[in-house]
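Colleagues,

For the teaching module next term, I've prepared a clean inverse folding example: a structure given as tokens, and then the sequence designed for it. I'd like students to try predicting residues themselves before seeing the answer, so please don't circulate the second half yet.
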């Protein structure tokens, strides 16, 4: 019974390959998994590590950690997280209109907004969707103005 329950719980965690856009979602999924499955233990940590692939897995292989979820999480954040602050990302959005085609601009803005969203989730893991939407309005307005100014210069 316990084994089948672990298999089901393992489905709560998607693979993580080192992409800075998905790191916060992966961490949130792992922490939810740890809570539901009764906390951290060697078997649960092994299941989590089995979901880590690509560059993220390379970092775990090369850099030391103490074999706990907190040390694995800290290592992933150190090596895979986008190091820019929210303000730096917002400034980057404002500068994009000068260097991109319209389609590239929209794609890059969407990526940057997703990074900002993730950083707010990292700062406050218990934030609810309504609070996050309210916070994101400011950055979405910056993005709209960037797209608008780009369309005016075409």
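(Answer key — instructors only)
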């Amino acid at each position: 019974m316990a084994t089948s329950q672990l298999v089901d719980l393992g489905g709560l965690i998607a693979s993580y390959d080192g992409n800075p856009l998905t790191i916060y979602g992966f961490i949130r999924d792992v922490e939810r998994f740890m809570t539901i499955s009764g906390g951290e233990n060697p078997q649960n940590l092994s299941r989590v590590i089995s979901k880590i692939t690509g560059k993220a897995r390379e970092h775990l292989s090369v850099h030391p950690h103490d074999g706990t979820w907190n040390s694995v999480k800290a290592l992933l954040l150190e090596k895979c997280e986008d190091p820019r602050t929210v303000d730096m990302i917002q400034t980057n959005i404002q500068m994009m209109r000068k260097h991109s085609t319209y389609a590239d601009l929209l794609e890059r803005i969407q990526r940057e907004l997703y990074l900002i969203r993730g950083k707010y989730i990292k700062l406050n893991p218990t934030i609810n969707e309504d609070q996050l939407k309210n916070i994101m309005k400011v950055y979405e307005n910056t993005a709209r103005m960037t797209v608008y100014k780009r369309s005016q210069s075409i």
